[in-house]
Design goal:
Blueprint lengths: L34 H11 L4 E5 L8 E7 L2 E7 L5 E5 L13 E3 L4 E2 L6 E2 L5 E3 L19 E7 L2 E5 L7 H4 L3 H5 L8 E10 L3 H8 L5 H4 L1 H6 L6 E4 L3 E7 L8 H9 L13 E7 L3 E5 L4 E8 L5 E9 L5 H31 L15 H14 L7
Helix pairs in contact: 7-8
This protein binds FE2/S2 (inorganic) cluster and fe (ii) ion (FE2).
Fe (ii) ion (FE2) binds next to loops.
Length: about 375
């Protein structure tokens, strides 16, 4: 006989953005409430360091890349003194987006709509038919809107908050740990964008815990020595070590990868048999493999969808064996991503359940608790005192 299910209890009215004690997951409405999207945009994405790309895409004066801080378009350009500059990617005339993709400006940034032209220092220098504006045109008040920009181990980050602390100050020993991977010398060999059918915070939380590996990633479980999967939580970032097993996998591709992988220049023997991951709050993920480095920007696209931009980097001199290993890595991790997308999709759907309240978090989910605390602190500024 089927057990009789208790009728669902009437759900309490969803709390306004509300907090719980540290160490607990976010309440369900954090992942489903459309009203939070704007708050997240203002309080998280416009105040934190956002990955914009790799410094090699900005080799000389006039080289530029474009990116987004959440939903805000930003451009980064190298000026004539070889410094990086960042601006809101919008023309001060009538809001045309100034640049798209990446490339090279010839001497100045020129708007494609009416041709207003800006120096790399942001000042407006050219307005076609300027006399037609009469006295209404004061070029000195129409410079590009600046943003902060910083390079960290070859990766370029932007921040729309003029008062934000420098990224290098926030991430402590992360540059020292990234340094052996020589990211500044690596080159992009793959990249793209994708969508995941879940709130961006679920995608982050899934990235920052390994507790689901034994159940949901059979391939990873065969490859990684789960016992030694280690999470090191800092204030602004998290570091993961996932050593590869000594025992050869029963799967041919996994076995071959583990046999053939060699450390990139800069890495030692101790780095050859470990996959590492770094996550910088709120939405930058860096996968550090012995053979390549991948980066991920995770951005909200509505409450139940995440837009991701990813790139894969490798040494310019990767030989045929290493290229084969990189191809295997891509195959293996594409499967892991597929499994992860299915997991977060299921959680997003489960969160619709009336009366559901989050369960406890394991020590293996320490970074989920950390992320929840960070999000609460940003979205509910007085949360820490409750
Ligand atoms: S919108 Fe840029 S010149 Fe008019
Ligand atoms: Fe996963």
């Amino acid at each position: 006989m089927q057990p009789v299910e208790a009728p669902p209890t009437t759900p309490a009215a969803p709390p306004a953005v509300e907090d719980r004690a540290a160490g607990t997951a976010l309440l369900p409405h954090f992942y489903t409430d459309p009203a939070l999207l704007e708050a997240e945009q203002e309080r998280i994405f416009e105040r934190t360091w956002q990955l914009a790309g790799h410094a090699s895409a900005l080799p000389s004066p006039g080289s530029y890349i474009t990116t987004r801080a959440g939903n805000q378009p930003v451009l980064v350009v190298r000026d004539k003194q070889h410094r990086l500059r960042a601006y809101r990617n919008v023309c001060r005339h009538r809001a045309s987006r100034l640049l798209s993709g990446s490339g090279q400006c010839k001497g100045a940034i020129r708007c494609r709509y009416h041709g207003w032209t800006y120096r790399f220092d942001g000042s407006l220098i050219g307005v076609p038919e300027g006399l037609m504006f009469g006295e209404r045109l004061d070029k000195s008040t129409l410079s590009l809107m600046p943003a902060r920009v910083e390079e960290l181990c070859g990766l370029v980050f932007v921040n729309l908050d003029e008062d934000a602390p420098a990224l290098a100050e926030l991430v402590g020993d992360l540059p020292r740990r990234l340094e052996p991977y020589r990211i500044p010398s690596l080159r992009t060999f793959r990249g793209g964008s994708g969508a995941q059918p879940a709130n961006w915070k679920l995608v982050v939380e899934n990235y920052v815990e390994g507790y689901h590996i034994p159940i949901a990633h059979p391939g990873l479980m065969r490859m990684l020595d789960y016992k030694y999967y280690d999470v090191d939580v800092h204030e602004h970032h998290v570091w993961f070590d996932a050593p590869l097993r000594e025992k050869p996998s029963s799967n041919r591709l996994e076995r071959l990868y583990a046999q053939l992988v060699e450390p990139m220049p800069g890495l030692g023997k101790e780095d050859q048999r470990v996959w590492r991951y770094a996550f910088i709050y709120p939405n930058t993920a860096i996968d550090l493999y012995p053979d390549q480095v991948n980066t991920w920007q995770l951005m909200p696209d509505g409450t139940a969808r995440t837009y991701d931009i990813w790139a894969a980097y490798r040494p310019p001199t990767s030989g045929i064996r290493t290229r084969a290993v990189q191809w295997m890595n891509q195959r293996l991790n594409t499967l892991v991503l597929k499994e992860d997308i299915d997991l977060v999709d299921n959680v997003q759907q489960g969160l619709q359940t009336r009366g559901y309240a989050c369960g406890p978090l394991s020590r293996r989910e320490a970074a989920v608790a950390w992320f929840a605390d960070r999000v609460r602190a940003d979205l509910v500024p007085d949360a820490r005192s409750r």
